[in-house]
Write a structure and sequence with these properties.
- This is TetR family transcriptional regulator C-terminal domain-containing protein.
- The structure is a single chain.
- With 67 residues, the chain is mostly helical.
- It is built from 3 helices and no strands.
- It has one domain.
- Helix 1 packs across helix 2 and helix 2 runs antiparallel to helix 3.
- It is elongated, with a radius of gyration of 13 Å.
């Protein structure tokens, strides 16, 4: 999954869709870490976290697209 995310983020970088200074590998690793962590937190307390919104906010930090 990390390799697939890295490839996707590399394509986004080539298209100018990643924020300056963000590389594809970093984007892939941190996005997967946030996703895994958000799911774990949700399993402990369904009301404590909105997994979808957490991922959306992560992508906003990394990209120049409105997600």
């Amino acid at each position: 999954m990390r390799a697939e995310f890295t490839t996707a983020f590399a394509a986004m970088a080539a298209a100018g869709l990643l924020r300056p200074g963000v590389d594809a590998e970093f984007a892939a690793v941190t996005t997967l870490a946030v996703w895994d962590g958000a799911q774990l937190q949700w399993m402990h307390d369904h009301d404590a976290i909105d997994v979808t919104e957490t991922l959306r906010r992560q992508l906003r930090l990394l990209t120049t697209v409105d997600v």
